[in-house]
């Protein structure tokens, strides 16, 4: 079964110049091609996969495929861009209206794990082929990743301030990168038949992460004696 990968809707102009969202046949077919491409890249690896492999997986001719994309790299770009754009969009929606710093960190972890477990093949492609893209395509994907990283940094910094923790930027960076190290590779070992679902796993991992960083030394307020 092909992986579930979605693409942004095309914007078309309606009579009178009004812009509307429109799910066209082109959009739907491109979504199917991206899902098949994700499967092929997952099974063969990006470098070993050929456009002919994609042709066989989609049941389309080479000419038909090139109507939807101009290179194999463009497919990888679309998969990677949509993956992290979706994660970021969902994170923003879930954080909206939540003010408790600890709960916001928990939301980040749950959002991350939920998407990774629901899109294991796409996440393997993203993780293993992260450095393939070059030029403008690579710059765009790296910018989205930096935005996601900075969002996590901000959440952890907010938590540290709320708890009065005594740590600097270097310690926050280590904490955040350690968190990513814990959650990014879950697709390599998670077995849905025996392991907990995203909700239970995120609770457990959040507990371990938070209990670790919240043991940091708190700031002390010195007083002068007369």
Structural features, described:
The protein is mainly α and about 230 residues long. The protein has helices at about 25-45, 50-60, 60-65, 70-95, 100-120, 120-130, 135-165, 170-185, 200-215; strands at about 10-15, 20. It has a two-stranded antiparallel sheet with strand order 1-2. The longest helix has 29 residues, at about 135-165.
Topology at a glance:
Blueprint: E1 10-13, E2 19-22, H1 25-44, H2 51-58, H3 62-66, H4 72-95, H5 101-118, H6 120-128, H7 135-163, H8 169-183, H9 198-213
Antiparallel strand pairs: 1-2
Helix pairs in contact: 1-2, 1-6, 4-5, 4-6, 4-7, 5-7, 5-9, 7-8
Brief summary:
The chain has 226 residues and is mainly alpha-helical.
Radius of gyration: 21 Å
- Under CATH at level 1, the class stands as Mainly Alpha
Major pleated sheet? 2 strands, antiparallel
What's the average pLDDT? 84
**How many strand elements?**
2
Q: How do the strands line up in the largest sheet?
A: 1-2
- Low-confidence region ranges: 1-22, 221-226
Q: Tell me the structural class.
A: mainly alpha
Order of helices and strands: EEHHHHHHHHH
Provide a count of the helices.
9
Helix content: 55-70%
Number of domains: 1
CATH architecture: Orthogonal Bundle
Give the CATH H-level superfamily. Answer: Tetracycline Repressor, domain 2
- Overall geometry comes to elongated
CATH fold descriptor: Tetracycline Repressor, domain 2
C-alpha end-to-end distance:
76 Å
Question: What proportion of the residues form beta strands (DSSP E)?
Answer: under 5%
């Amino acid at each position: 079964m092909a992986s579930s990968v979605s693409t942004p809707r095309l914007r078309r102009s309606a009579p009178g110049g009004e812009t509307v969202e429109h799910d066209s046949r082109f959009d739907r077919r491109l979504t199917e091609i991206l899902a098949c491409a994700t499967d092929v890249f997952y099974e063969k690896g990006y470098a070993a996969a050929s456009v002919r492999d994609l042709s066989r997986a989609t049941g389309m001719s080479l000419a038909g495929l090139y109507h939807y994309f101009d290179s194999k790299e463009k497919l990888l770009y679309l998969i990677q861009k949509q993956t992290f754009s979706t994660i970021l969009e969902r994170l923003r929606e879930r954080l909206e209206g939540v003010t408790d710093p600890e709960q916001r960190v928990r939301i980040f972890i749950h959002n991350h794990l939920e998407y990774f477990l629901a899109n294991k093949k796409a996440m393997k492609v993203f993780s293993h082929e992260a450095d393939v893209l070059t030029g403008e395509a690579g710059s765009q994907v790296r910018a989205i990743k930096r935005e996601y990283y900075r969002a996590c940094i901000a959440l952890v910094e907010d938590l540290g301030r709320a708890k009065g923790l005594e740590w600097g930027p270097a310690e926050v960076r280590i904490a955040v990168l350690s968190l990513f190290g814990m959650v990014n590779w879950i697709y390599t070992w998670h077995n849905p038949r025996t392991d907990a679902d995203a909700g239970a796993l995120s609770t457990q991992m959040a507990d371990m992460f938070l209990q670790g960083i919240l043991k940091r030394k708190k700031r002390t307020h010195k007083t002068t004696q007369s």
